[in-house]
Design brief:
The chain is α/β, with parallel strands linked by helices. It contains 16 helices and twelve strands. Helix 8 links the parallel strand 5 and strand 6. The longest helix has 32 residues. The protein is globular, with a radius of gyration of 21 Å. The relative contact order is 0.13.
Amino acid sequence: MDDEWICGRLGEDEPWALGAVNPPVFENSLFTFRTAQELGEAIRSEDERYVYWRGTNPTVDLAQRKLAALERGERAKCFGSGMGAISATISSLVKAGDHVLVLGAVYGPTTQFLRYLEKFGVTHTHVNDLAECDSAIRASTRLLYFESPSYMAYAVVDIAEVTAWARERGLVSVMDNTWSTPIFQKPLTMGVDLVVHSLSKYIGGHSDLVGGVVVGPSRLIRPLALTEYQLYGAAMSPHDAAKVIKGLRTLPVRMAAHQERGLAVAEFLTGHPAVRAVNHPGLPSHPGHDLAKRQMAGFSSLFSLVLDTESRQEVGLFLDKLRHFRIGVSWGGFESLVNAPALSTEESVRATMGIPVGLVRLSVGLEPADTLIKDLGLALEGVGRLA
């Protein structure tokens, strides 16, 4: 079963769909049973049985089945946000006194959540590479968390090497795969234990939903679904699940287009006199390019550049001069977006991630590449004069 079939047709021809070309949206908050015994049996397996919206329902379940199949995982659990998935996943794996290793730069709110866990006795250490992991690991370390490509810097991690290291030491590995989507990268096949995504990005694809998912083996997903998912209450709505299903139908086509436009823009920026660096794994000049080609099937259109300036004011002026790139958070939709961590991210988090003042993140959408390149060229004129 290939990815395009999974995205477009998996589970959509079953009897409950009644032949509808778009799978029905089950809006009801609860399901009833013929006997008390049936209700009791369902509640004991509420992660799989339809009892109450907070557990799951057929629309959400179809989205979960598709996402699990795409990632080549046994099971998936969808949440009301990406952070809902991340926080529940981490919480399911640690307890008071445990320690988490964070490899490379990760999503800012993930770091904030790990700091929040400190009041419950869960500590964490940020490291840059496996050599530092060897030095930072403790007897209490339970979890290794990372992204590849990494947050904002888009460094590429050798997934098989990292997960083998974690497995040898009895750690569970969790990886955020939002950047690549399962179309371009399948971490579970390289040894990762659990994969998380923000569904708000490429998978949703239209900037009209907020959601998250965790995918992996049933032995890890089931306890999470019965405990953290239920108790934290970050349930995905059936309407958002329907948007996920609709987004998946065009995901392979959209990712091919994002890749083409993203690389065209990145190539234009490479070597521009106002740009110190371009962080895009698809460029041959990227230090992780060869590794990326071995473990990825393609590249998305989210990357960063570093302006030739140390002035926050000049970074803001560059953003303000853009006309086709809209200023905003998030990414992965049709529209091209720009953001600068120095203007919006907590300085301590930015320092932890090693993000310079001049770093600007671009999310290249599906507009014509020539239009976006012209927009960037005009905005770059004069950058560096305030340095």
